[in-house]
Design brief:
Structural class: alpha/beta
Largest sheet: 6 strands, mixed
CATH superfamily: SGNH hydrolase
Number of domains: 1
Order of helices and strands: EEHHEHHEHHEHEHHH
Strand content: 15-25%
CATH architecture: 3-Layer(aba) Sandwich
Strand order of the largest sheet: 1-3-2-4-5-6
CATH topology: Rossmann fold
């Protein structure tokens, strides 16, 4: 099933009266690693506090690879007609480890259509499964390699997860299946998107998703900015 979600965050903070510093259109193409906990929505809520307006759409199929999306055709049509600033590509989580060449081929399928549409390619680097942390290097290498080849922006969520997990036991980033993100894991991913893609410091953002402790939020914000903000 394909999930299409579009939205502009305006509630809670009086955003209807906000003078936006910039407006950004984003298309996310991926699977449950993007859909779980509504990552695009979290990012939009957080960005709104920094006066950045994000209009977002998500095309998500459970367990799908980028080739699955390409073959289905809907993602290509959305890219061609959507007028997005950024198209975020998220590969099936284990493919970069099992077959990095295949992953690179999948990403290349989207390269020309995205650039022809006037959009920029963003690669959402995911994380290793909890029981196999050593796989993170292969995941990072796969994303960084094809990112460098195509001139894409790589958002290094997996590497920030890796460093955070090496220092802290809580909050848990992996869900019980040891693969998907908890709310904290998705929140950290959103912080990394803010820092790496939008060049926005997440530290001090007040938006608090229901179920996430404010102290944990602060730690996740700090982790993302300390690792990624220094590179900006």
């Amino acid at each position: 099933m394909i999930h299409l979600n579009a939205g502009v965050v305006a509630r809670k903070l009086g955003m209807a009266k906000t003078k936006w510093s910039r407006s950004i259109g984003m298309l996310f193409i991926g699977n449950s690693f993007s859909q779980r906990n509504n990552l695009p929505g979290l990012l939009a809520e957080m960005a709104a506090e920094r006066e950045v307006r994000i209009e977002h759409e998500l095309i998500s199929v459970g367990g799908a690879s980028l080739r699955t999306h390409w073959n289905a055709g809907r993602a290509a049509r959305a890219i061609a007609t959507g007028g997005y600033d950024y198209v975020v590509l998220q590969e099936q989580s284990t493919l970069p480890v099992k077959n990095a060449n295949r992953m690179a081929e999948n990403v290349r399928l989207f390269d020309e259509p995205i650039k022809r549409a006037g959009s920029k390619i963003v690669l959402y680097m995911t994380w290793a499964r909890q029981h196999a942390p050593e796989a993170q290097q292969a995941i990072a290498d796969a994303y960084n390699s094809i990112g460098e080849e195509l001139g894409a922006i790589v958002v290094p969520v997996g590497l920030v997860w890796q460093k955070f997990l090496s220092k802290y036991d809580k909050p848990a980033l992996h869900d019980r299946d040891q693969s998907h993100p908890t709310l904290a894991g998705s929140y950290l991913a959103a912080c990394v998107f803010l820092a790496a893609l939008l060049k926005v410091n997440p530290v001090g953002i007040r938006f608090a998703p229901a179920g996430l402790d404010r102290k944990d939020m602060t730690g996740l914000q700090d982790a993302a900015w300390k690792q990624v903000g220094k590179q900006n």
